[in-house]
Amino acid sequence: MLTVVIFLPLAAAGVLLAMPRLSGRAAAAVWLAASSADLALIGWMWWRYDPGSDAAGLVDGIAYEVDVPWIPTVDAGYHVGVDGLSLPLLALTAVLFLACAVWSLREPDRPRTYAALFLFLQTACLGTFAALDLILFFVFFDLTIVGMYFIIAGWGHGNARRSALKFFLYTFVGSLALLVGFIGLFLGSDDRTFDMVTLAKNPPLTESPVAAGLVLLAIGLGLAVKTPLFPFHTWLPDAHTDAPAAGSAILAGVLLKLGTYGFVRIAMPILPDAWRRWAMVAVVVGVVSVLWGAFVALAQTDLKRMIAYTSVNHMGYVLLGLGAAGLVGQADDEARTIATVGALYQMVSHGLLTGALFLLTGWLWSRGRTYAFDRWGGLARPAPVFAAALAVAAFGSLGLPGFSGFVAEFQIFTGALQAAPVATVLAVAGILVTAGLFLLALQRLLTGATVEPATGHGADHAPTRTAPHAVASAATATAARTPPRVRTEDLHGHELLPVAALLALALILGLLPGVLLDVFEPAARMVTQLVAR
User: Fold this and answer.
1) pLDDT tens digits for 304-313?
2) What per-residue string of b and e applies to 129-165 under the rule 16 or more CB within 10 Å gives b?
3) Which residues face 68 on adjacent strands?
4) 145-196 per-position pLDDT tens digit
5) CA distance 471 to 192
6) What three-state secondary structure class fits 329?
7) Residue 238 near residue 159, CB atoms below 8 Å
8) What's the chain's Rg over C-alpha atoms?
């Protein structure tokens, strides 16, 4: 079943590429059908999933496991499975890709290839979350870089090729560091294996703290670039700004989680001694990312770049929680478990809310070819549905009670306060900055006089507040020089439906958090126990 879930999107992509005369509408229908089927299968897996009663060992919570030898000389195989760490992220991946399929129903530019690339990327993301072998994890991890590179370069705007190249080089170099760390784990293990389950049961390098620290450094660098964390985040704003809306939603909602997931899946349980020794470094990097991301986002004059920097801020909260889970001497088991649960919850919450925000930025680009604050204003009048959706997504992202973000951040702060009180207080201050930047963005975009950019040349023209007044003697020449005003249409049905679904899920998880907590809590407790060995 799990193998079908992973490779169903890839099979659909193959069908699309094998039928070059397929119409754009038919290609969109194939994409929509494959993503819907994948989500339905994951829902069925969730319904039948049993985390088990014993959380003392990693293997006890794994379901739908497949283990087939691949490279027997190094004990690497096609080993996949699902547990409480990966199942919600698999579901998040399927939800976001389906949302992007609906959003892109009217994609006019090479829709068949566009859909095939997203389906390929979906398989790569699902495979990374399901992998229980380090080499398999690395292969899927690198394939996500390839897929996103072509999406940004082929369907982006602005300086898309440069941004795509920057994204590829940064993340590919990070993945090479990750590979070096994986080889270090193999060489340092008694079993000489790349199998995550075996390595977690018998951690390598326990007698070599220096070597373990260097391996953790290599793995941490690779994952920090992908997450991204300060100071490895510089590729992110350009990639987001120039990517298409659906590409940005997947980049923020899914690909960034591959980095944080790697910390909790690989670094913490397989290198528990090293994680404990260097946990405070993770806490500090998390807090710096929180504050840096918030303050830099506050200074942006472009909505999409602002949202991109808030991702650095929100991923900082995740690392704060995971770092606190390693401070065994400063906090009890329950507090460290709560911090870990909060970090996992934040991954899902950020994916839903920021995915919705990036899709909404696509509305600005499609109507006015710009994200600049000074070229939009008073949108609550001509586009009330867009304004309402943007306001809900913004309030959810700033941690308003009732949304999933509040549940996540509350648990991170509650769990981390005992272990790192100063760092936690500083991180809480980041919420104030985040609230300020989102409220300022809403004020600029939605209130005041209606301001619309000119069509045709996008940001090359100043915003239009009133109809141009032509001098009578030069009316014809003035009309020829004056660009037409943008036609500000509200959200269409295919744009509203995916955004509304993502926001509804964020609201449900904020009001009924037990849906996720029942799955996350046993897995988080297992991780904290493995770290404390």
Assistant:
1) 999 999 999 9
2) bbbbbbbbbbbbbbbbbebbbbbbbbbbebebeebbb
3) 78
4) 999 999 999 999 989 999 999 999 999 999 999 999 999 999 998 889 999 9
5) 82
6) coil
7) yes
8) 23
